[in-house]
Amino acid sequence: MSKQQQPDIRFFSFAGKNAPKTVIQFDGDIYKRSVTMDSGVFHGSIFCEAGWFMKPFQKPTLKKHDSDALLVFIGSNPEDPENLNAEIELWIENDKLILTTTCFVFIPKGTAYGNMVIKNLTKPVLHYVSLMDTDTYHVSPAEATAAPGTYTGNVIEKYAPVDGRIPEAPEGFLTLILWIDGLKLKGAPYMEACWFHTTNDTGPEAHLHDNLDELIGFLGTDPDNPEELYAEVKFFVEDREITITKSCIVYIPRGVRHSPILVPKLERPIMHFSGGNGGNYYR
Fold it and tell me: Which one-letter DSSP state was computed for residue 11?
C-alpha cells in the first residue's frame, strides 16, 4: 500500500470539522449544507456534497462539468421513502425531467443541465452531488445541443440491480432505496443509497475494491440540524476503528481495505450511501 493509502483520519470529512475548498452555492436560505468531500479534505478524492433543499426555488441557467456527475434527490420521510414531497423540474440538454420520486440523475461529462425549479415542496429534500472524476467543484456555462430524447432515460428510481444482488442485513435495519451502475445505465458510475433504522452489530465484512475509488456517506436526517448524525457509527479502515457521530463522507482509495460498519447507537434514522468511479461494484 502506498504512503497516500495509509489508513488515516484524513480520509474522513466530518460535518463542522473540515474546511472544504469548494462548496455548492445557492442563494438565500433555500439550501442547508450538511457535509462536503473535496481536495480541501483529501487531495485526489471524489467531490461530493450533501445538503437539504428547504424551500422552493428556481435557477434558470444551464451548466456543465468536466466530469461525470451524479445528482441525488431523496425524500425525507423514512416511512414513505420514495416520495420526494416536492416536484423538481430539471433539464438535461433539450430534455425536461419532472422528478417527484426519490432518484439518481446521471449527467455525463460535458453535458448541459440545469434550469432547475423546485415547487410544491412540503418536506425538505435531501440532495447530494458527486463529481466522479475530480476532487473540485467547478462549473462552466453551457448550451443545449443534443437532440430531444437523448437523456430522458438518465433517471434511475428504486433499488433494483440488474444482477439481483441484495445485501444481507438484520430484519428492520435497512430500507434499500436506490441503485445505479453501468449495467443499469450505460456509462453510469456505481452508487447505492439506503436508510438505517436501528442499531446493528454485524457486517459487511472487511473488503477492498481494485476497480474503483469509493465514497461512503453517513448523513443525519434532521434538516434543521444537518450536521448532527443522532447516531454512533463505527467504521474500519484497514485495522483502524473510527467512531462517527456527525454527518460524514469517507473517501476510500482503491486497494484500501475497509468495513465493517457497526451502529451501536441510533436515535433517529440516518441515510447511508456508497458509490465509486467504476462502472460496476466488485469486492
Answer: G
How does DSSP assign 43-107, residue by residue? TT--EEEEEEE-S-EEEEEEEE-SS-EEEEEEES-TTSTTEEEEEEEEEETTEEEEEEE-EEEEE
pLDDT digits (tens, 9 = 90+) for 88-139: 999 999 999 999 999 999 999 999 999 999 999 999 999 999 999 999 999 9
* Phi and psi angles of residue 275, each rounded to the nearest 5 degrees, phi first: -165, 165
Q: Which domains does the chain have, with CATH numbers?
A: 3-276 (2.60.120.10)
Q: Are strands 140-141 and 57-64 parallel, antiparallel or unpaired?
A: antiparallel
Instruction: Please provide the distance, in angstroms rounded to a whole number, between the alpha carbons at the two ends of the chain.
Output: 17
The closest of 129, 130, 147 to 53, measured between CA atoms, is 129
Give me the count of residues in the chain: 283
| Contact criterion met (CB below 8 Å) for 222 and 228 | yes
How far is C-alpha 165 from the chain's CA centre?
20
Q: What is the DSSP string of 236-250?
A: EETTEEEEEEE-EEE
Cell of 192: 447505492
Record the pTM: 0.94
Question: What is the Cα–Cα distance from 190 to 31, expressed in whole angstroms?
Answer: 26
pLDDT tens sequence across 152-201:
999 999 999 998 888 888 899 999 999 999 999 999 999 999 999 999 99
Residue 31 belongs to what H/E stretch? strand 31-37
Give, as one character, the DSSP assignment of residue 269. -
